[in-house]
Every structure is written in C-alpha cells, then in structure tokens.
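Q: what sequence does this backbone want?
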C-alpha cells in the first residue's frame, strides 16, 4: 500500500496496530472515510477519549501505512489502507505461528475455552469446517 509521504505497508511486514489503533480502524471500517472529529465523536459514545489522542493515533496509523489521509479539504479525511479481513488474517496468522506453533486446533480450543460462542456462531463454524473438508476453502 503506497501512501504518499509515509512508510508503506506491505503486509505481512507492516507494524501491528495497538489496541487504540485497532479501535480507530474498526471505527473507520464502519464509517468509511472520516475526519478526526467524526471518529472522535463515535469513540466518545463508547468511552471517554481525548480528541488529541484520536488525532495522534490517526497520525501514527498513517505513518504505519494502515490508513490513507486525504488532504484536499481543510479537515483531512482518513480511510483504511487495508481491508479488515486482510489485516485480521495477518494478525491471526502471526498469532497462530508465534503462540500456537501453527496449530489451528489449539488456537480454536483456547478461544472457545475463554468465551462461549452463540449457537449462531457455532453453526457458522460448522459450516466453515464442512466447506473446508469439502474442498471449498
């Protein structure tokens, strides 16, 4: 991902987002291109956050190449430079290798032991496994 004037993000080598950066990325994925104020107002509905913190985290995300900044208007608009699924996949792959030695079964067991999934989520997991077993990866 080429972002003018900042580091480029060529997954899987780009820096991983911090929890605060993830929160901003989640907000941008939901809102689409947004100003710092729009993101800040959305985050402030969930919990207290300083405007300057939101601004700084967006600047860091731009430096990491994870968001693009459109400077054509006075209030700059930011948008994700990477798709949610792509970044989630990279992080899961990294976690799978570093923490679980490549064992998807162990990762799944640990995740399920920590938080009980809903019936709907279990049904979706079953469908995914059946599709995978049927060669429809």
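A:
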């Amino acid at each position: 991902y080429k972002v003018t004037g900042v580091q480029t993000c060529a997954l899987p080598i780009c820096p991983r987002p911090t929890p605060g950066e993830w929160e901003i990325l989640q907000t941008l994925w939901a809102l689409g291109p947004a100003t710092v104020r729009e993101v800040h107002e959305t985050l402030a509905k969930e919990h207290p956050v300083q405007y300057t913190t939101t601004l700084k985290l967006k600047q860091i995300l731009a430096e990491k190449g994870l968001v693009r900044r459109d400077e054509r208007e006075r209030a700059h608009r930011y948008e994700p430079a990477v798709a949610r699924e792509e970044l989630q996949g990279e992080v899961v792959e990294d976690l799978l290798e570093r923490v679980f030695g490549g064992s998807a079964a162990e990762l799944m067991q640990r995740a399920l032991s920590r938080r009980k999934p809903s019936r709907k989520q279990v049904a979706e997991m079953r469908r995914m496994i059946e599709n995978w077993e049927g060669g429809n990866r």
